[in-house]
Amino acid sequence: MTANAAGAARSAKDSAEQAGDRAVNSRPFRILVTVGLITYGIVHILVGWIALQIAWGLGGGSGEASQQGALAELAQQPVGVVILWLTVLGLFAMTAWQAAEAAWGHRDRPEGFKRIRKRLASVGRALTYAAIALAAISALRGASQSGDQKQEGWTARLLGMPFGRILVALVGVVIIVLAVRQVIKGVKRKFTEDLSGGVSAGVQRLGQIGYISKGVAMVVIGGLFGWAALTYDASKAGGLDDALRTINSAPLGSVLLTVVALGLVCFGVFCFFWARHPKIAASPNTADR
121 and 98 in contact (C-beta within 8 Å)? Predict the structure, then answer.
């Protein structure tokens, strides 16, 4: 590549980054991110509430304790359609925010492994937010397939592939690794890196409890995938609902599930404070200076 071509490519890249930076730092975009974080919190509070119903047999405990179940519950409320549309808009904005972070963000980190790790984490967040937004669209359309049914469906397809059991086992390992990272993030309060400005000790405690609880639930999900690989049975795999029901079936399960459910509620409340202090990407052209 000639010097002129390299310079033109660099100039085009800088222009794209500047345009993206202006977009994610615009007031309308920040409002959408705030809405997304608030609805993200509402979803977690509803999941926690459904889990409490399962733990103590309230209302039959028949609801699905997952994002899909929480969104289905929202759809049945008088203003549920409005909230679901706000959820879709807000979470797609959050997806774009994390995609921008993955592309050119985290310039406050030194070049190399640490920056790459943070950008990969942003990719994971973008996928998570997009998945919940799509689930909200499904709820608006009245789709009835549960999250756990979807998990079992694609797990069965994986098991049918060459080396399928190894692939499913690897999925379980990846989920457990991510779960441990969630727990560490909670214990070490690393989630404060996602906030612009400080928050009170009480809010930090909510975040700690929330991230640790989410990590515990994810460990069980990873274990279910591992069990599906060992038994060669896709029905053993499952999502959040299966994980929480597995906790409930353990000795002292209702107590354990109550603790996890309250932790999910704590995370939901933490999201409301996060919505007030989201750390949006700094300008890529100034952060390295």
Answer: no
Cα–Cα nearest to 216, from 195, 247, 252 = 247
- Helices 27-56 and 67-75 sit at what angle, rounded to 10 degrees? 100
pTM: 0.81
The amino acid present at 227, given as its one-letter code, is W
How far apart are alpha carbons 272 and 102 in whole angstroms? 24
How far apart CA 264 and CA 46 sit, in angstroms, is 9
Report the alpha-carbon angle 194-198-201, nearest 5: 105
| Paired tokens of 149 | 């049914």
Span 118-170, pLDDT tens digits: 888 888 889 989 989 988 888 888 755 555 566 666 677 777 878 888 888 99
The domain spans of the chain are: 15-276
Alpha helical stretches, state H, the chain: 3-24, 27-56, 67-75, 80-104, 113-141, 147-159, 164-187, 201-231, 240-249, 253-276
Please identify which residue in the block is written with the tokens 């009480």. Answer: 202
Q: Is 110 left (phi over 0), alpha (psi -120 to 50) or beta?
A: beta
Q: What are phi and psi of 63, to 5 degrees?
A: -70, 160
Is there a contact between 132 and 107 (Cβ–Cβ < 8 Å)? no
